[in-house]
Design goal:
Blueprint: E1 2-4, E2 6-9, E3 12-19, E4 53-56, H1 65-74, E5 81-84, H2 89-98, E6 102-104, E7 118-122, E8 127-129
Helix pairs in contact: 1-2
């Protein structure tokens, strides 16, 4: 199965798909040392994004969130790739400086993604794929 979207940050990555129904702030929302979501009230609080294909609607919060994404990558705790419903500058900048493949605007939205499955993101082609 292949879903088309818009490529944002180049690269290809494969991993377990972690889908969040809520936006996320990387600044104070994710521990840069562990990759665990620590944002109070977030539905995935306590989950690690390290090595996952992390899908969430959009980012929120301070521009420092981009540097938190970079710190996650330097610590080996970044997501393998990011999927957003709609990319915004904080997450785009973080994905680019941290070399995290990223896509958005999937033709099915996030609801068409198989949570927990192993998927591949191609940030240049703008696709998400998996074995059906």
């Amino acid at each position: 199965m292949i879903i088309n979207g818009r490529g944002i940050a180049r690269g290809t990555a494969t991993g377990r798909l972690l889908v969040s129904p809520a936006p996320l702030s990387f600044l104070s929302g994710v521990d840069p040392e562990s990759g665990v979501i620590i944002e109070e009230g977030h539905p995935l609080k306590g989950e690690s994004i390290a090595g996952t294909i992390f899908a969430f609607p959009f980012g929120k919060g301070s521009t420092v969130g981009s540097y938190v994404m970079y710190a996650l990558a330097r610590n080996g705790k970044a997501p393998a790739a990011i999927i957003n419903e709609e990319a915004e500058p904080i997450i785009v900048t973080g994905a680019i400086i941290a070399h995290i493949p990223m896509v958005d605007r999937l033709e099915t939205g996030l609801s068409g993604l198989p949570a927990g499955a192993t998927v591949t993101v191609d940030g240049e082609a703008g696709t998400v794929s998996w074995e059906a």
